[in-house]
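Thanks for the sequence, V.! I ran methionine adenosyltransferase right away. Repeating your input here for the record:
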Amino acid sequence: RRTLIKKLIEPIIGDISGIEIFVNPTGKFVQGGFEADTGLTGRKIMVDTYGGFIPHGGGAFSGKDPTKVDRSAAYMCRFVAKTLVANKLAKKCLVSVAYAIGRAEPLMVEAVNEKGESLAHIVKEKFDFRPLSIIERLGLRRPIYRQTAAYGHFGKDGLPWEEIIKI
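Predicted structure:
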């Protein structure tokens, strides 16, 4: 890890003091390949969400259990954005989150309204974006995914990420 930072990252980036660099942040590589990432990665997230209108990660939702943040965190972002709009904190809202493997706490949580104003302080105060907290809050271990098999994952009544809460 240290050698990689010294010989590759520092020569390109330069001074890295004050910057946190993640190289294999779990500190180990125990399992890879089929055993670690079992499940079909089918339709791309763009097909199941907003097309090219909203930024998104790669991969797919279907075939992944809720511990995979590309699924659960996307649902949480939808839940939070809808809640902010319903509570009249924005007319439109984009919620973004970034994670590092092996870290429960997100590296970044951001929310902006239609004017480009940050709502991150509200989001960080009211919502927990750690994967297990998302799973618990949205009840993602329940058998609720059948209706997501066709016509996308968003905009369907009865799914927990479509609910709105008062904040």
